[in-house]
Amino acid sequence: MQLYNIKHPEEKVSFKQAVLQGLGREQGLFFPEQLPEFTPEQIEELLALPFVERAAKVLEAFIGDEFTSAQIQELAEQAFNFPVPVVQVSENVYTLELFHGPTLAFKDFGGRFMSQVLRLLAQERKITILTATSGDTGAAVAHAFYQVPNIEVVVLYPKGRISELQEKLFCTLGENIKTIAIDGDFDACQALVKQAFDDQELREAIGLNSANSINISRLLAQITYYFEAYARLPCKQQVVVSVPSGNFGNLTAGLLAKALGLPIYQYIAATNANDTVPRYLASGKWEPATTKATLSNAMDVSRPNNWPRIEELFKVKGWQFKQDLFSAPVSDEQTATTIKELEALGYLSEPHGAVAYQVLAQHLQPGQVGVFLGTAHPAKFKAEVENILGKEIDLPEQLAKYKDRPLLSENFPADYDVLKAFLLAHTEAAKAK
Ligand SMILES: *Cc1c(COP(=O)(O)O)cnc(C)c1O
């Protein structure tokens, strides 16, 4: 697959190159030059397959020119080695549970697939993964790359703005995983990462690679579960899919699934109070506000960095925002009420899934079927959920085992020079090992 830089369309790279490089010139995002498309008959055939086999076929449509079928099948088997259930929540609403991977959030899909691709690409030289996280990417990346030879991982996160348990999950690993708490919000962390990628000298010196949601491999991995959601629905009339959105990578993947031919009637981009996109779709004005801290903290993003890809996709496909995408924000108060509502329906949720459910429930028309993405396990937001429901919830074993381990993070100011000096020294030290 050839991809071009949205900012500089003359810059073209292969999929392998795009995975290694992350971003193009001037932080431009890569976008597929040719979007594959399945016929309705092919879609029917795909829907009949089990998840991993189908995922391999979907991935092959993009990267079949750079990897063999056997390699792709193995990538999918290794990356997607956990269940992806669809659970009915009410008469016409279902949820796709994406949180049964090792870090209990949907970012395991992208993180694990990317680490499998990089494992194949790992050359003689060391690779340094630098990523910013608002909570879950960091955990998924850290776990996906933990103990992978020749790869150093550095994760930046906003100090004091992620849940205690989230922090425990990825800041207690050690070895090739280094975690840094930054004095600032997620956008500040993201800005530092972008600056590092713009620094040619540093990039070369440490073999810099990004693993956050801008990496194209992560998006491809996420396309696969939209097919699963659709395949598992007993009724496929006007399927509306609601995606709890922060950086909009998940939604980009959903829209790519639609571009491939998956007959999703409409997507919903549900946000928290960080509502840049719903405001933009209503007014046509792109006016990011200061990032606000909310209950659904993995979505506390006011400058969603995948948005240019969505614009590009709509342009290429000739889709209309008004028709194919609906977007609305949900306040923390509504989020809490929704978690209670869902509990009354017999479904234990958490803030991100609840945001998606709320917009879906308000927007769904009679005769339509709705699916919202369950992006995190309720236990990942244990304190918040317990506080809202007034009862204790169980900690699954994946989380329980990290609870009492000491945090290994360092604390840095939001200062690029400090980060750069650290990265150079850290890579030298790692080389010497
Ligand atoms: C990252 C994350 C989101 C937002 O996904 P994007 O692809 O950034 O829009 C939603 N929910 C959870 C639990 C997340 O970790």
UniProtKB/TrEMBL annotation:
SUPFAM superfamilies: Tryptophan synthase beta subunit-like PLP-dependent enzymes (SSF53686). Keywords: Amino-acid biosynthesis, Lyase, Pyridoxal phosphate, Threonine biosynthesis. Its EC number is 4.2.3.1. Residues 93-370 form the Tryptophan synthase beta chain-like PALP domain. It comes from the Bacteria. GO terms for molecular function: pyridoxal phosphate binding; threonine synthase activity. It is an enzyme of class 4 (lyase). The keyword Amino-acid biosynthesis applies. Its cofactor is pyridoxal 5'-phosphate. One of its GO terms (biological process) is threonine biosynthetic process. It catalyses: O-phospho-L-homoserine + H2O = L-threonine + phosphate. Residues 10-80 form the Threonine synthase N-terminal domain. This is Threonine synthase. It comes from Psittacicella gerlachiana. Pathway: Amino-acid biosynthesis; L-threonine biosynthesis; L-threonine from L-aspartate: step 5/5. Belongs to the threonine synthase family. The modification N6-(pyridoxal phosphate)lysine is found at K107. It holds the Pfam family PALP.
